[in-house]
Amino acid sequence: MKWALLLCALGLLLHCEAKQLSRCELVRELRRNGFPENKMRDWVCLVENESSRRTDIVSRPNSDGSRDYGLFQINDRYWCSSTSQPGKDCNVTCKQLLSDNISKSAACAKKIYQRHGFDAWYG
Asked: Where in this chain does the record put each Glycosyl hydrolases family 22 (GH22) domain (predicted)?
């Protein structure tokens, strides 16, 4: 019983490290990371629909077995490495995309947008 309580407490503690940004916090972070004002509404809409403004979201497996990570729900098939070594097109680990510091996620999302526009996301 003590172990069960300890595990529950640990789970709650780990979950508390995740962050759900308010809409205003999201806009501030997007501006800080160089997102253009003329596309700000589109980026906010994308983040709200993809991750509900949460930094810790990992999707269920997609039909091809890949997963989507973080605020922008960036896919591990092409963009981030699911190993401990940074890699793929954004040269990051998928775990780095789950950070409350969104700089790596933002840089990767902008790279994806430069190549594919908003069509790269379903949200």
From this structure: 90-108
